[in-house]
Amino acid sequence: MLVKINNQSKHPLPQYETKGSSGMDVRANIDSAVIIPPLGRALIKTGLYLEMDHGLECQVRPRSGFALKKGITVLNTPGTIDADYRGEVGVILINLSNEDVEIQDGERIAQLVFCKVEQVELTQVEVLSESNRGAGGFGSTGVK
Questions:
Q1: Is 65 helix (H, G, I), strand (E, B) or coil?
Q2: Which domains, and CATH codes, for the chain?
């Protein structure tokens, strides 16, 4: 599947790091380092612009190593880039650690995962059909 990308950053295109990777790492494209204080958040630009077919979305997800080592994650996980969006890809990062975290230009800050999506038609009904689960949620199927 082909996705068009306009790379206006000073960094190489995102790429899959291994043959089995689901996501492509995306890099910060910033003029100077950004300090994110504990529980602070920042919008980090990437210099990337996408064009994809309808029926696709690009999800912006955290990088597990970044989360584990620095306590940084993507705030609106997963962030969604819609097929008709043509603006710059930005990543909303939040610092869940107890220390300031510095984001450097070129640092791998998130990953992009492309997924198929469908638009549905909603129809109003008075009653929904029964299921074994019913209205049970939030741990209703057990913890083990």
A1: helix
A2: 4-116 (2.70.40.10)
Distance, CA of 133 to CA of 28 (rounded, Å): 44
49-101 tens-digit pLDDT: 999 999 999 999 999 999 999 999 999 999 999 999 999 999 999 999 999 99
Residue whose token pair is 């899959």: 16
Q: Which residue, 58, 52, 53, 34, is CA-closest to 44?
A: 34
Encoded tokens for 134? 């019913």
The residue written with tokens 């008075």 in the block is 126
**38 in the Ramachandran plot: left (φ > 0), alpha (ψ -120 to 50) or beta?**
beta
Taking the C-alpha atoms of residue 114 and residue 80, their distance in angstroms, rounded to an integer, is: 10
CB 19 within 8 A of CB 59: no
